[in-house]
Each structure stands twice: as structure tokens, then as C-alpha cells.
Amino acid sequence: MNTKPESQSLAAWVEETREGIDSGRFPVRAFNDQAVYDLEQERLFSKTWCFLAHESEIPHPGDYVTRYIGNNNLIVARDEHGEIHANLNMCRHRGNVMCKAEMGNASHFRCSYHGWTYKNSGELVGVPYMKEGYEGRLKRKDWGLVGVRVDSYEGLVFGCLDPEAPPLDEYLGGFQFYLDLYLKHGLGGVEVHGPPDHWIADTDWKICTENFAGDGYHTPVAHQWGFHLGYFPSSGSTHSQGWAVSIPGKGHGIGLGHGPNFPPFGGFPDDLVAEMKQSLSPEQVEVFSRTRTAVGSVFPNLSFLMQPFSLEPGEIGVRFVTMRLYHPVGPGRMEMYSWCLVPKNASQEYKKEAYRAYTLAFGQAGTFEQDDFENWTKVTQAAGMTMVRDVDFPYIMGMDSAPDPEFPGPGHAVVPYVNDTNFRNLWSRWADYLAGEV
Ligand code: FES
Ligand SMILES: [Fe+2]
């Protein structure tokens, strides 16, 4: 790939990128470029199912949060009947922002410009001077807030801007099997532990999605202090054991890292292990009981991680789950949303410990988080240099890996855990969207 993108049309560059992925190459330019960012807004975020909120963030009628799909700001609200809606946060009269708070509870939203009022479902109910001004010409039912499709899986609420896109279930395409580890490890499901931490970072969202699609390769190096000091129950040299699983043609991927001598479901309290054996299928139990680290990405920009983290060095650690959303806000720039999920029925003591382990490792100032962002911001800076415009990265690890025929879960599972298979699948899906093929 020696042609300079400046002399190519963007469409030709996307085509060349698609071909490159098949032979294990991916262009650096993709990670920090205005034209690529614009194309993602137009062709990717307008068509994929994007994560909006966890149901436990808006448990009661009237509860709402404001969130994004691409550059579209949405009000995600539970109406008076308990149904969840996502509506564009824009007044239909002249476009004012309807809701300026990030979260709260309201039965109605009243515009601060001319006073149009909508129910939390998005229905227009109040128009000042309706009779005198509009003389019967304005029909309220025609001018509600602009809604988007909403669907959910195990408490995860997703939205989709494309009315023609396949349903969420089909979009997830079997990845539900792996999501269950994060979402059903207690009989009552999970809940968020407080509102998400969120912050802006000079990092491209795709670098994070890729890392969480199973980059076990970086862990012994980027987080080596964790192994050395005994906060992470394994050793760097044994870190490559386990599976990398991808859902072909969907872009989702997960790394299931094993630790030698790691006890089954190590780091979970006994009562939770008993619940897990009931809430998960025998195949899921077989896969997950040996898993020490599960790090996965739902295409395009939602990720999960579960691992034990030792509050005291040398201990087996406490299991925590983090869920994170990488919301793009410009080329090479994103807003990170980071949640801690805890089993709803777990003891308060376990919830507090799990939250503490999350905070120390993956909270905004968490040690793992700091290690990662230091690297991710540098990668993004490098991707913005003019000299790397025609440079590729190698994605050839595990190029010929055959799927493990014994693996009991869905998707394409390969060993070892350290492998580029998930990433090629991710980039291939991304490029299909950018080419307008999805
Ligand atoms: S812009 Fe909202 S009422 Fe006019
Ligand atoms: Fe990391």
C-alpha cells in the first residue's frame, strides 16, 4: 500500500483497506483522520446498534439520562408505563436543546425557548398560543420529538438510527453467550454501581474497542507492575493461555484468559458461584469457570472486562466487572464512559469490595486505566502524523489459526488467547460499514 491517501479518493482508500485486512494489514491513518471520522458518522454510527444505558440507571417511571449515538444527543427515558424511549434531544419547534441535565426524573420536558412541552415518551402535549397562533393547522401528533429504535438485552439498552437495520438479537449474533458472563453472574442480574465516570481523552475510540476485543498481548508489558507486585493472580509468562473468540461477520470479540492453577471461578464469593451455576448454561459454566480475565467488545464501541484484582498483594483478588463506552467526539478524540456492574442480589459488602477493586484498576485514576491511556494517546498522536499516511500495521498473528473444534460456545474460538483473529474480524466489519456494504 504505497499510494498516498491524499491522491486517492476516500472510497478507493476504504476499498484498499478492506483488501489489506484480508492479508493482515490495517492503515494507521484510520486512527486519527477527519475524513475517516466523518465517514464513520455517516455510515457506521447511523446504522449500528449503539449502547445507550443500563436499565438500572433509569429504574423508575420518569427517570432519564442523556446519551449519544454518534453526534446525536438523545434523551433516554422511562415513561409513566415503564417503557423506555430514546428521543433526539431537540425541540421540534426551532431546535433548542430540550433537556440540559445528564440525568434526572421528569414526567415532561418543557422547552426553555417558546415553551413547547413533551411527555417523557416524546409526545408533544403543550403548545403556547395553540388556538390563536396556529388556528387549527398544527397537529400535535405530527410534531413529537424525533424517536429512534430501542431494544435491550439483559438490561443493556441499545438504540439504532436505521429503521431498516436487522433486530438487536441478530446484530449481537451469538455474542449474548459471552455477554451473559458479565450480565448474569447473579440470579437477579446486575445493576450499575452509581453513575458512570466520564471524561474526554485524546484517543481514538477504535484503539479502545480493539484493546478490549481481547488484547491479552499488551497486559504483561503495559500492566507489568500488576504481575510484579502481586495484584494480578498469574504471571506475565503464563498470560497467553486461553481462547480468543470472535463472531465472524459481526465484529464482536472476546479474550478469555486462563491462569495456571487458578481455581474455578476464583475471586467470586461462594454464594455467587452457586448462583452462576444456575443462571448460566452448562456450556457457559464450562467456558467461564476457567476464565481469569474476560475482556470483550460489542461492535462498534461498547466493551466489558471482568477480572480479579487483589486489594492486598498476593491474594486471589476480588472479581469486578467494568462496562465502558467509547463515544467519539472528533478525530482522535473521544469521551469515555465507565461503569462498574455489580450483581443486584449480592451482599453490600461484596458490592463495595468489587467497586473498590474496579476503582483501583479501571476507575478514571485506576492503575490499569492510566497504563492504557498513556499508550492509547501516544498511538493516536502517532496516527495523526503526516508521514504515517501510507503506513500499515501488521495484523498477522494467528493468521492460519483453525477454530478449536472442542470449544462449546458460539463463534470462532482460537488458541492461544494472544492472537489477532478477533481484530481482523473487527476491522473487516468496520470497513464493510465504511464501504456502505452493510
Ligand atoms: S425552540 Fe422549543 S419551543 Fe421554540
Ligand atoms: Fe490494558
* β-strand amount: 25-35%
In whole angstroms, how far apart are the ends?
Answer: 25 Å
List cofactors, ions and other ligands.
FE2/S2 (inorganic) cluster, fe (ii) ion
Q: pLDDT below 50 for ≥5 consecutive residues: which ranges?
A: none
Count of helical segments? 13
Oligomer: single chain
Largest sheet: 9 strands, antiparallel
Helices and strands: which structural class?
A: alpha+beta
Mean pLDDT comes to 95
What's the total count of β strands?
21
The Rg value, from CA coordinates, equals 23 Å
The best one-word shape is: globular
Q: Considering DSSP H and I runs of 4 or more, what fraction of the residues is helical?
A: 25-40%
Secondary-structure blueprint:
Layout: H1 10-22, E1 25-27, H2 34-44, E2 50-54, E3 63-69, E4 72-78, E5 84-88, E6 103-105, E7 108-110, E8 117-119, E9 124-126, H3 130-134, E10 147-153, E11 156-160, H4 168-172, H5 176-183, E12 190-192, E13 197-201, H6 205-212, H7 219-222, H8 224-228, E14 242-246, E15 253-258, H9 270-279, H10 282-289, E16 291-298, E17 302-309, E18 318-330, E19 333-343, H11 348-362, H12 367-383, E20 392-394, E21 412-414, H13 421-434
Antiparallel strand pairs: 1-20, 2-11, 3-4, 3-6, 4-5, 5-10, 7-8, 8-9, 10-11, 12-19, 13-19, 14-15, 14-21, 15-16, 16-17, 17-18, 18-19
The chain binds FE2/S2 (inorganic) cluster and fe (ii) ion (FE2).
